[in-house]
Specification:
The protein is an all-alpha fold. It has five helices and no strands.
């Protein structure tokens, strides 16, 4: 599975529009659309934002695991 398909699936599973996800990430909807269609690669900082939004791991979003449960996060100091 290509990671961009997983981005779309997660958004749809959470009943969100592209515009809502883009607003959460602080980017334009057209830019986000390009990530979901695979026209552009998504930067790491946006993947982290999506993992937090969906309460999952970046590995899951990238298709490296099928485990949706997030890893235990480090406490930021």
């Amino acid at each position: 599975m290509y990671y961009y398909r997983r981005l779309r699936d997660m958004r749809e599973d959470h009943d969100l529009a592209q515009k809502e996800v883009a607003a959460h990430l602080g980017i334009d909807q057209r830019v986000y659309s390009n990530y979901e269609t695979g026209k552009r690669q998504i930067p790491a900082h946006l993947l982290i934002g999506l993992a937090k939004l969906y309460n999952t791991s970046v590995d899951y979003l990238l298709g490296l695991t099928d485990e949706t449960k997030p890893y235990k996060r480090k406490i930021q100091k």
